[in-house]
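Listing S7. Sequence submitted for prediction.
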Amino acid sequence: MESLKSYTDKFFIQHKNELLKNYPGISPQRIYQELKTLSFSHYDESRNLERPYLDGSHCDFSYFFGKLREGIPLAYITGRAYFYKSEFIVNENVLIPRFETEVLVEKGARFISQNFKNIDLVKVADVGTGSGNIICSILRESKRAIKAYAIDISSQALEIADRNIYRLGFSFNPQSEVILLEQDRLKTFSTNVHLLVSNPPYIKENQKEEVHVQVDTYEPHQSLYLNEAKYDEWYEQFFKQINEVLFPDGIFIIEGHEQWLGDLKKIAEKHSFNQLCIEKDLTGKDRFLVGRK
């Protein structure tokens, strides 16, 4: 028998090539840290992560190593993903939060803090909320009372968002609340909001070959892709809806594909938005379209 740490090191050496293919930049230390996450999620504190490990034994750790060899995303194996300043529950019904999106949270929270000084309750809509990582992070970051609307077309995604809102709600302003809504974009939404944030599907289906195979295989396609023939029409409808719900001087912040943000900016211009600008993510790539009504 050997310790789990020793087994992890050996496992990495034996399967290094396939691990690096599925998990670029992965290391034995990262695998071991994820094992700790799994341990804390499924075991009580009296269980010892360093207990002897039997290869092939039936336990959560054997399940973990088996899923690693399959190439399942780490976040889906452990059921957890870290984003901004919080840990979120995730599963295959929601996208795994990416650090690039953290800029969207910072911009949204800054907009709230710098505006609406005479408004007691700021209203925010998060379209395509997924795990709720964006809206929960804005609520945690902002000291203001916020009435938030977490919107998604998927009822399974909203179940995950609901769990994360429940877990993190203690850190929101006590006067804040979150309303979950199942719908396609803003199809039946008629409430005016001061801020709209969204990480919508923005990859064209004919660009799938550019997407990492692990993402394409395991993450929800509904949240990733749009048909290229309907791409502009989809965003035409979306910007029209945004224009209808934003208060005057309200702002939207949308994540998008660097190749198509310029086209989306032109579409947004048709709907009377001003001060439109394309802003970069933490890697220096064009990532966000920001506009004010």
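Caption to Listing S7: primary sequence and predicted structure tokens for the chain studied. The chain is about 40% helix and 20% strand. The two ends are 65 Å apart (CA to CA).
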